[in-house]
Each structure stands twice: as structure tokens, then as C-alpha cells.
Amino acid sequence: MSHTSLSGLLQLTDSALPTGAFSHSFGLEAYLESGEVHDEATLLAWLEGFLATQLTHTDAVAVRRAARLAEMGACDAEVGSCAAEMGSCDAEVGACDAEVGSPVGPDLAVRGPQFAVQDPHFAVRGPHFALPNPHFAIQNPHLGDLDDAAGLDALRALDVELTALLVPAQIRQASLRMGRRLLEIAAENFASDAVASYAADVAAGTCAGHYPIAFALAGAGQGIDEETLVEAYLYSTLTSLTQNAVRAIPLGQLAGQRVLGGLRAHVPAAVVRSRAADPRHFGAAAPALEIHQMRHEHQRARMFAS
Amino acid sequence: MRSGPGEPTTAGPRLTGQLRLGLELRAGRTVAARQFHEGALRVLRALYPDGTGQPMLTVVNPGGGYLGGDTYATEVALGPGASALLTTQSATKVYRTPQGPARAVLRLSLGPGSRLESVPDALIAYRGAAYRQDTEVAMAPDASLALADVVTHGWSPDGEPFRFDEVFLRTRVAVDGRLAVADNLVVRPADGGTARLMLAGRSHLGSLLVVDPRADDAAVAALRSHLGIDAAPGAGATAHDGARSPRVVAAHDGARSPRRGTAPLAGITRLAVPGFALRVLADSTQSAEAVLHAALNWMRSAWHGQGPLDTRKP
Predict the structure, then answer these.
(1) φ, ψ at B120 (rounded to 5°)
(2) CB–CB of A291 and B182 under 8 A?
(3) pLDDT per residue over B204-221, tens digit each?
(4) How would you classify residue B146: left for phi > 0, otherwise alpha for psi between -120 and 50, otherwise beta?
(5) What's the mean per-residue pLDDT of chain B?
(6) Using the beta-carbon criterion (under 8 Å), do B34 and A161 form an inter-chain contact?
(7) Looking at the domain assignment, is residue B9 inside a domain?
């Protein structure tokens, strides 16, 4: 990594960067309310759990996918708009996913004419629906509409998918608030074609504007590689959460640093897990965590917006 | 003959069972205008338990349980205005699957103004079982969808809970051709699958996904209050109108739960599109189902003037 990209990374992951991270607990506050998290040891255990679930299966995979798309776009910067390039890279990303994921299996690799879905993240490729069956003909026009998903470029598809799989409302809203804020900051400090294109899509309403995508595009534009970006994202998220918990529990500053020191040992494994994850597991839910994130919506005394 | 892994598959392997239903609204009643089944899946004769013209369709697996390598496919298409309740005859039991995961694919197509309630019995995964379920829905913006699921572990010879290998439920809902809800549940007990942020020490996970134009913020707030979710954990019985949801009260009392006094842990949230997700962690099938059914019955009453679910098995 060059000195330029290191300083870019430091600015991007600085907890002073005004993305609003200080006002989000991602469900932790509901565990403070119930008393399940109340000291240094219980905080460390909760953060380890958060890292192993939502952060690894959703955030890290989203950062990874967006970073890959941005890198592919940057390699081919002379051809048209960034959005178009990312669309053309879709197939390659799909191929990468196929390599790292566990096999979907050839027995599920056939698509039926009534259900032809081109988006690799959507398709259930069941042979059952390809069997010619004279007794049954589906005439629902809404099924055909799914083909339009193929027209969306891969980054737009990732943005839509994040909105769809961030099920707890406050978690979805946190991603959008922080994402849109980071795009504003990035326009002036981490400018790149990819950042500008995504910001334009958000302004036009084509994309919602998610934080992991904005983070990846801003970082990739500074020449920071995918693995570093994923690790930086995970560590900086844990840092903000720890700082928030130090205020909320409250804990001493030294205890907060011990928690961070303990978490640091787990981050590289989470980076590796997110790389090896089955692409079909993207966004895998942690049900108890989600229930707490949902219950935070109507929690009485709240310091945090999520 | 099975094709090799590298070959393009044209016909695919033989399915263990498949069922296809085309439902149409005719003279105020929804009927199966097209029906096809093969192998170990069929549907019982439609019952009309109330006067609304909505059939209860009970899917039957004569094989009794899912084994390794089994693949089941169910496809239901609802024409304009059609309405159906889809359920099962008994719990879906997945036994050891050394030949590879048992798979089930459910494809639902909801035309304009149609409505589908899918309320299967619990999925029970036994020791050494791997199960993958894909649910794909394509629906019109004014259609109404309710997908319920309950998952738990089966008895194991050593008495230890959660000895199955994997349960993977993947649900994708497209509204008017656009992906609106994606819900993935992956439980691998040997790989942190029962950790505190996953199942919080409970044995049963229930989920209800609803996409419906009526499910706005006000409806979700009303439902949250009805279910007693906005009260402190364990205080549900006193915090809501018990007369309208007696089964939730029972669940909160822990009367039917082996761990008396442990109320289900439940949460409800608005989706990005009109609709909500309700999740519940509980200690028994009855306790998880009580919460899901209370929500289904609230919608039945408030939106359709319909009586409560009665999926008692024939």
C-alpha cells in the first residue's frame, strides 16, 4: 500500500469521520436494556457474536462485492460510464462467487422458461420447472418481469439486495443514513468515477445508498485492495461500537481498549470467512440479534438511533 | 441416468416429488384450474372451512419424511383475485442425509389482487440432517403474501439438542419484478449456529413474512401492540388485549412450555416495501406457532373479515 492510500484509509476509518456512527448501536442498546450486556466481559462476548454473524455475513460480503466491482470498473475506465462497466463486470463477479462458494450443484443448474431469472443472486435453478409439462402453463405476467433484473448493473443489484435483506428497519435506515452521509464526504475527499456514479444513482433514486457500498467505493478509489478494505471496515465498525458502549454502559477507557484489543484477534478470521462464504448465504440472519434490533424500535429510553 | 457434474443438464434428476397448482377465482370461489403431481407429493381435496371462498390446500408427503438427496418442488400460481391457504398434513421431518442435503423448492406466483397464506407445520431436522429450502415469490403489487415457518431440532439418541448438520431457508420475494425482500436463515449447529445472537438458547425459531399493501406503519404498530411485543419481555399477558389473542397469553404464561415462565422472545419490523417480518424464538412448537397464528388471525380479522386459522389435521 502506498503512503497516499494509507492516509486515505486512515481518514476513511477515522472515528472522527462524521458518518453518524456514534449514534448507532446496531441492536447493542437492546442488550444493554435487558442487562445481558453490562460489563467488559459481556460486551466483548456480544461484539464477538456481532462480528461472527451480521458483520461477516452481510457487511463484509457487501464491502467485498462492491470493492470488486469498483476495481473492475477502474481497470477499464475508458469505456463509457462507470455504471456500464460495472454491468459488464457482473459476469466476472458471478464467476468469482462460483469459485469461492460451495457448489450449488449441477442438479440445480437448469432454469425453467417460465421462471428464467438472470440475476445470479436471485436464481433458484431448479430443473423441476424446466420439465415440459403439458398440464400446466403459468400465465402470470409478473413472473416475466423478473427478467428485467438482468438489465440492472451489478452495483445497482447489490444496492437493491441490501435494502431487501436488511430486514430490521433501524438497521436498514442506519445503513442508508451513514451511506448517504459518506457519499457526501467522499465526493470531496475520496472522489472517483465509481463514487460519482453511485452518488448520481442515489440522487436519481435508482439506488438507495448503503454504507458498505459507499465505504468500498470510496476506499477502492484510493487504491486500497479488497482484503484491506474488508478488514478496515470490520475493525472501524467495532471501534465505533466499542466507543458507544463505553459511553452507554459506562466503562472505563482502558476497558474499552482491552475489548478492542481482544476483538482485533478475531478480525482476520472474519475477513477470511467472508471471502470463503457461500454467495447464497449473503445476508444470513442472526435471529436473536434481529429480534433485539426490532425491539429497539420501541425501547423507551434510547441513546442510539439503532 | 444422472449426468456428470460438468455436463449441461437438460432434464435434471428425477424429483422425489413435485406438485403444481394453478388456482383461479371462479364465481366467488378459488378452485384448482390446473393441477399436476408426481412422486411423493400430492394435495388433499380442497376444503372450504369458511364462507370466503378461500380453499385450504393440504400438501401431503406420503413418504413420511425427507432423506438425503431428496428433492421436492412445489409450484403454486394464483390468478387474479384468487386466495388460498397452503398448509401441510404434518411436520416435515428431515432424517440423516449422508447422500447430500434434502432440498425443497417452493415457487409462488401471485397475480393481481390475489392472496396466499402459507402456514406449514414445523420443520424438524434430526441428527445428521442437512436441509435446504428455496422459496421464490413473484407477486403483483396489490397481492397479499404471508409466509410462516417454524424450525426446530429433532430428538437424538444421545439426548443432545441440535445435532443436525444444516438448515438453510432462503426466501426471495419480488414485487412487480423487483427484489423486495430477501431473507436467509442458515443454522449450522457445529459452526456457531446456536450461539446467543442466533437462537438465544431457545429450541424453536418461528418466522412470518408478510408483504401486503395494507401492512403500513400503523398496521405494524397495531399488530405489535396486539401481540404484546411492545411490553417488557415476559409481561405480555397483561400488556395487550388478551381476549382477542388468547393463545399468545397462553404462550406468555408458559403454560404449554416445558420451561415454565419463559416467554417467547419476539420482534416485528416494517419491511422496505409495505409488509413486515415477525420473528419468534421459543421453547415449543405450540409457543412459536401461537405468536405467528395470533398475527395471522389479526390480519384475517382486520383485513378480510375472516375467522381464525383452523388447520386441525383431518
Answers:
(1) -75, 165
(2) no
(3) 999 999 999 999 999 999
(4) beta
(5) 88
(6) no
(7) no
